[in-house]
Design goal:
alpha+beta, Alpha-Beta Plaits, MutS, DNA mismatch repair protein, domain I, DNA polymerase, domain 1, 4 domains, five-stranded mixed sheet, five-stranded antiparallel sheet, globular, disordered C terminus
Length: 364
């Protein structure tokens, strides 16, 4: 049985700034999507430190409102290059402990560790070692909460249960006890709107969802309703299916400094991510037969869609074309986006690729 770790960097942008500037440590700070620092008071908070959150400050809140709730808050223009550099360092650390790592966003990653426990110890031991490596290499201000679970969705829930710097394990034995203790929207894939819809139907907790009739759920939500019930049973939802049972997937994602609201804003980032995926695939001599696009909206609701091609691709433009098609067809056009991800899966060896070209390629 697989075992997954979900590693979530705590208040990532704020923690990076506090690590870089000792004056900011222990103080309420807010990171605003304005790298120039000239318009921070008119911007929207990307994240806030825990002292600011204790005063009611939240991500996505206008800076002026944060100032009203916490007059002493220090507003800082976000530095995307700095955060991406630390994110890459974080990614390098976790990849020492498993070959099966998916960097889900700039500040979180999933990894499967059952295949390496005979070399590196139990999942708990691996989690402690990752925390220690982060303290030594990134600094004591940059902490993470790690969740351990039998699948990705429960591992993520576990990481959310204890912040900051937490370590929680959900097992097959205790998963129902844990699910009974949390609200419906505690799990990835169930946003506030879905929770409200469920509650309007009389489904107010995971016990209700577990007992709900399949046909009733399908009539209310379509096929997604069956996935919701699988969540209540402690299984992975359809949202995570794109990486489940795949031997290897290649993906890149990026959290943006300012929410993107239009397709024209999203296209350049989607193209860059598609190019990175294609470059990595060619470097490893692989093609992918499924293309997946993921979004995280401003309200932290997740969206994901995939297309099975029936043939393999690793060309930048081909990946971009498929990813753009998914985005145009399926995204919610009225919701601002804060994270975009592109990946390919169902990978196999590229038997037609030019090996000499692949050997000469170097990623940035």
């Amino acid at each position: 049985m697989p075992t997954y770790l979900h590693i979530d960097l705590n208040c990532f942008f704020a923690s990076v700034e506090q690590q870089a500037n000792p004056f900011l440590r222990g103080k309420p700070i807010g990171i605003v999507a304005d790298p120039t620092g000239r318009y921070v008071r008119r911007g929207v908070l990307a994240t806030a430190s825990y002292p600011a959150k204790a005063k009611g400050v939240k991500s996505g809140m206008p800076a002026f409102q944060a100032k009203q709730l916490c007059p002493e808050i220090i507003l800082i223009g976000g530095d995307g290059d700095k955060y991406e550099y630390i994110s890459n360092c974080f990614n390098n650390i976790v990849r020492r402990y498993s070959d099966d790592v998916t960097q889900f966003s700039i500040d979180e990653a999933y990894m499967e560790v059952d295949s390496v426990r005979h070399l590196l110890g139990s999942p708990t031991t691996i989690a402690h070692n990752i925390k220690q490596a982060m303290r030594e290499e990134l600094g004591t201000c940059i902490t993470c909460s790690i969740g351990i679970g039998p699948n990705r969705i429960l591992a993520k829930l576990a990481s959310d249960l204890q912040k900051p710097d937490g370590l929680v394990e959900i097992t097959h034995e205790n998963k129902f006890e844990v699910l009974r203790s949390v609200p419906l929207d505690a799990l990835a894939g169930i946003g506030p709107k879905t929770r409200a819809h469920l509650e309007a139907l009389g489904i107010v907790d995971f016990d209700d969802l577990y007992k709900a009739d399949d046909l009733f759920l399908k009539n209310a939500f379509g096929v997604w309703g069956i996935n919701l019930k699988r969540v209540a049973q402690g299984h992975e939802s359809g949202f995570f299916r794109y990486t489940h049972n795949q031997q290897k997937s290649i993906g890149h994602s990026r959290t943006v400094n300012a929410n993107m609201e239009t397709l024209e804003q999203l296209k350049p980032l989607l193209k860059r991510l598609s190019s990175k995926v294609g470059q990595r695939a060619r470097k490893h001599g692989l093609v992918g037969q499924t293309v997946h696009v993921q979004l995280k909206y401003w309200d932290f609701e997740h969206w994901g869609m995939q297309r099975k091609l029936g043939f393999g691709i690793n060309d930048d433009s081909a990946i971009y074309k498929e990813a753009l098609g998914l985005l145009v067809t399926h995204r919610q056009p009225t919701k601002p986006v804060r994270l975009v991800g592109v990946s390919i899966s169902d990978t196999r060896e590229d038997v037609q690729g030019d090996l000499s070209c692949r050997l000469q390629f170097h990623t940035s």
